[in-house]
Amino acid sequence: MNEDRQLLVGMDFGEFVTQISCYDNKIFEPVPIGRTDGANREYEIPTVIAVDIASGQWLYGKAAVNASAENYIKITNILEMAGKCDEFELDGYKFRTVEMVRRFMTNCLSILKEYSPNETIKKLVVSVEEKNDHIVKVIEEALQTLGIESDRLIIQSHKQSYMYYAVSQPDELWMNNVGMFEYGKKGLTYSQISIDRKSVPYIVGAEKKDLSDVVPYQLVLEGDENKLKYAFINSANTSLHKQMVTTVYITGSGFEGRWSEDALKELCIGRRVFRGQNLFTKGACYAAREFAGEGKLDGFIFLDDDMIVSDIMIKTYHNAEVGEVALARAGTRWKDIDNSIDVIPDDEDEIEIIVRNVLEHEARAHILSLSGFSGRANRMTRFTIRIRFADRNTCIVTLKDNGFGEFCPSSNRIWERYIKI
Question: CATH 3.30.420.40: which residues of the chain?
Fold first, then answer.
């Protein structure tokens, strides 16, 4: 990787606003990156673009929001479209989703030139509220046109960014369970992180509950602050009841009203409560540090829908001792796994693959038979064992016969076995 690629960037690509942070190696923390607007610096970029079809002029963010509706077509649902379609129509004009995302991302990332004009991105983590295959495809294609290939890009959910943020804080803030209330235009949600400290490394997981039916955003629009405070406190106390949660994070535009001051004072009894609007972009930035190999979280395994929950090992004899070699580790994104190892059987007619579930603390052995090569002299066959995944729970084990040079030509045979983990 080029030496001038130094920036570790976290982007929260939100439905309504987008935020960017960059890891500062002097203070060892993410710092928000904003665009200068007169005497102020704007850190929340409205996720809006606008186009004047007649002139071909494009506007972004705040300028797009303020654009004249008579002259400009405004696209306010970029993220929604990225999650479900390749094209969409607005005011009689068709737009390609990838192109809209590319334009918006280009404008957002150009802010980095103000922050650090001589450096380029080493790792970019884009955080979205909920991931699906289509939104990942669109963002990847859009950023590839900007020269940001898959080796520099990670796309993760808010839940993952929340986990990275929480455990990157001082130890005393995550020694017990950690809670987060997010209140935006879609309503209220509660997410709780649990950390299994009985295992090494620690296992981090998160569960999310939707509380929008009892605390909808409509309560904010109605303006009845007493009603809103009462609904939130009741829901919060129910969610936290009998839970060992001593740290709570508060985020989302719904908490900007005066009512939240008194509500959060009640929530603070016996707990530490932090409120802010940049948790997800900072969490994505911490993740960028980890994925770039510069992190401090080697002692944790983060489990989410993208990560496998098992270590996959093979027993080998190496350097005069029997041991296990890891082919895949729990907490790794299943899409990123494509590992291989070469082995030479020594009086063996089978290869043992061990799948060790880190949540259930159970191990299962899967046997790959080598009976088809019983006629060869001992230690005269070299196999390549390759590990990939079809999905989070399905491991593909490929066994390829490489022969042994001129002494024993390869049969070119390949076995493939699917293992449920």
Answer: 5-156
Distances (CA, A) of 341 to 24, 28, 258, 383, 389: 38, 37, 60, 8, 16
Tell me what the mean pLDDT of segment 256-261 comes to.
89
Q: What is the pLDDT of residues 99-142, one digit of tens each?
A: 999 999 999 999 998 888 889 999 999 999 999 999 999 999 99
The rounded distance, in Å, linking the Cα atoms of 377 and 386 is 24
pTM: 0.85
* Main-chain phi, psi angles of 376, to 5 degrees: -85, 150
Tokens describing residue 233 = 């406190």
d(CA 218, CA 283): 29
Q: Is the pLDDT of residue 381 over 80?
A: no
CATH of region 310-420: 2.60.34
Domain with CATH 2.60.34 in the chain: 310-420
Domain 161-280 has CATH 3.30.70: no
Lowest mean pLDDT of 62-76, 129-143, 229-243, 313-327, name the range.
313-327
Instruction: Say yes or no: domain 5-156 is CATH 3.40.920.10.
Output: no
Residue 24 to residues 31, 102, 234, 329, Cα–Cα distance (Å): 6, 26, 39, 29
Grouping H, G, I as helix, E, B as strand and the rest as coil, residue 16 is coil
Three-class secondary structure of residue 293 per DSSP: coil
Tokens (6 digits) for 43: 């850190």
Rg of the chain over CA atoms, in angstroms?
A: 26
pLDDT single digits (tens) 83-93: 999 999 999 99
d(CA 193, CA 285): 19
CA distance 389 to 368: 17
Helices 279-291 and 158-167 cross at an angle (nearest 10°) of 80
Where does 180-333 have alpha helices with state H? 218-222, 225-240, 259-267, 279-291
User: How far is 14 from 77, CA to CA, in rounded Å?
Assistant: 10
CA distances in angstroms from 2 to 5, 81, 121, 201, 401, listed in the order given: 6, 34, 10, 32, 37
Rounded Cα distance between 94 and 241, Å, is 50
β-pair partners for 307: 333
Residue count of the chain: 421
